[in-house]
Amino acid sequence: MTTTIQVSRKTRQLLDALKRRLSAKSYDEVIQKLMIEKLEIPTSMFGSNPKLSSFTEKEEEEFHELRLRD
Fold it and tell me: What are residue 68's phi and psi, to 5 degrees?
């Protein structure tokens, strides 16, 4: 499921610059990388069991919610 968000022209320019710098394929990828870094989510948590199949988008929406640190 996709959604549309509104950002200022300056934010769009910054996203474009980061997208090029990170060699990201999409703005979504840029935003996710920024959030993972800022929220200090360990990369070791992702893909820890290669035998498991990937979650569908619906499963992610229903069952996975990031818990922010207080």
Answer: -80, 145
